[in-house]
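Ticket closed. Logging final result for Small ribosomal subunit protein uS4c.
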Amino acid sequence: MSRYRGPRFKKICRLGALPGLTSKEPRDPTPPRFKKKSQYHTRLEEKQKLRFHYGLTERQLLKYVRIAGKAKGPTGEVLLQLLEMRLDNILFRLGMASTIPQARQLVNHRHILVNGRIVDIPSYRCKPRDIITAREKEKSRTLIQNYLQNSLNSSPRRKLANHLTTQPLQYKGLVNQIIDSKWVGLKINELLVVEYYSRQI
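Final structure:
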């Protein structure tokens, strides 16, 4: 199972802000400072940030790192692009869900259409010009309307990345292009993640 069921604040306090894991914020969001961290400790923390933010298992993340290693371009950037183009993450970025676990639930329960077809796989890789909409069922529209309303009222309001366009009144989102690494919503050093997995690729 890719779902993390443990205490979320504990992870945020240890690793820093993880907007995809929970919409709530702890009183003290700064992670505790250790006197001295080993290189392994630093790499492990960066890997864990990535894992918990996107809600992946160890095996899934390793699979993405291997795919990114075989692709053209810097492995770290390609890895972030692969993770950002997942359907559950795109829904979260569009504001149709307040967290990535909620987005995953919407997809699993068949509330989401991609290019007019039901997709119930959260890891589905979106491509440029994909149109993401809610099903025309009343339940699907009500759920997504609540999430959209919450995201519009949230303070500070999340800025929409330039690779996405949203039409909230039509329950619709459009993927314009592959995301640029500067728009990734997580402060992370992806090179350390690649270094962590370097012996396993």
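The mean pLDDT is 81. No further action required.
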